[in-house]
Design a protein that fits this description.
Elements (H helix, E strand, L loop, with lengths): L1 E6 L4 H4 L13 H15 L5 E4 L3 H14 L3 E3 L16 H16 L12 H16 L7 E6 L1 H12 L17 E7 L2 E9 L12
Parallel strand pairs: 1-4, 2-3, 2-4
Antiparallel strand pairs: 1-5, 5-6
Protein name: Phosphoglycerate mutase
Pfam family, one: His_Phos_1
InterPro entries: His_Pase_superF_clade-1, His_PPase_superfam, PG/BPGM_mutase_AS, PGM_Phosphatase
Length: 208
């Protein structure tokens, strides 16, 4: 079984380095082109199911894969990006200027309600069970594509790998329309690819 966690394409707020959170922002023309390119690659992996956040940037990204695979997309608001309250709509610089102590605490791995919003663990609490529920419906050796958001994907990966939440930030971010791949190993889920923009390649000479 394989999970492909796919970040949405570019938005105008991404270019402006604005914190989007749960704000519903559409893709730019570049973002649509990114989604179409990525969809052609991911379609070759013959996914069995597609689920997506219902925010339009993720839904539109998923729609490009649906168009080339013929699969239907199941949308779920539990896959939305982290709600970040007063941080949403602010640029990176504005957040540091207005909420510098809170930002620094978050970067240190402390549980912080950014802008009065959700904790990262709460995002994982809502998103990871949805991914697992759909994964359970896959056929043997099946593939699930999850079109979502950078923060939600990172927290979901951290939860599925069993990492302490303090270390989730160490996974690093995903570029627009890149993806991470999780596969099932003998001791649970394992990270096979992270922030990939090309098709996964077999790992040679590892500990298998």
């Amino acid at each position: 079984m394989r999970l492909i966690l796919w970040r949405h394409g570019q938005t105008a707020w991404n270019l402006e380095r604005r914190f989007q959170g749960s704000t519903d922002i559409e893709l730019t023309d570049t973002g649509v082109a990114q989604a179409r390119r990525a969809a052609r690659l991911l379609a070759s992996l013959k996914p069995d199911a597609i689920i997506a956040s219902d925010l339009q940037r993720a839904a539109a990204t998923a729609a490009e894969l649906a168009a080339v695979t013929g699969l239907e997309v199941t949308h779920d608001e539990a896959l939305r990006e982290t709600y970040a309250g007063r941080w949403q709509g602010l640029t990176h610089e504005e957040i540091i200027e207005r909420y510098g102590e809170q930002y620094a605490a978050w970067k240190r791995g402390e549980p912080v309600r950014r802008g009065g919003g959700e904790l990262e663990t709460e995002v994982a609490d809502r998103a990871a069970p949805v991914v697992l529920r759909h994964a359970e419906k896959l056929p043997d050796n099946g593939t699930l594509v999850v079109a979502s958001h950078g923060g939600t994907i990172r927290t979901t990966i951290g939860r599925l790998l069993g990492l302490d939440s303090h270390h989730w930030e160490s996974l690093g971010g995903l570029s627009n329309c890149c993806w991470s791949v999780l596969g099932q190993g003998a001791r649970g889920w394992r990270l096979l690819e992270h922030n990939a923009g090309t098709l996964p390649e077999p790992v040679l000479g590892d500990d298998d």
